[in-house]
Write a structure and sequence with these properties.
By secondary structure, the chain is an all-alpha fold. It has a domain of 60 residues. It is built from 5 helices and no strands. Helix 2 crosses helix 3 and helix 2 crosses helix 5.
Length: 109
């Protein structure tokens, strides 16, 4: 009998806790009219394009070097380490040639 009373008390406590918790949570305000924020949309899109391009310019050289190294290693033309060193050397000594190459352009886009 005491166990049943303890179970009932536990159920009451859980119910009371749950209802008091939901009563204290703030309710979000609901607006009747939903509209898109179109102010300065051109600037926002421009900023997104610049951010995406910047991220791609920073990541594409690393991916290009790794991809080139894997392909050269698989073909037996060069080892992976030597290919990475050669690509890094080309990026530092002739960056315009490296950035203008087809592999870089394919990965950048």
């Amino acid at each position: 009998m005491g166990e049943e009373r303890d179970r009932n008390h536990a159920k009451q406590t859980e119910t009371t806790s749950a209802s008091s918790l939901t009563a204290t949570l703030p309710r979000p305000e609901r607006s009747e009219s939903k509209s898109w924020n179109m102010s300065k949309l051109g600037l926002r899109i421009g900023a997104d394009v610049i951010a995406a391009g910047s991220a791609s310019v920073l990541v594409a050289p690393v991916i290009t070097m790794i991809d080139k190294g894997i392909i050269e290693n698989a073909s037996g033309r060069n080892t992976l380490g030597e290919s990475l060193k050669g690509s890094l050397r080309e990026l530092v000594s002739r960056p315009h040639q490296f950035v203008g190459s087809k592999p870089f352009a394919l990965i950048y886009v």
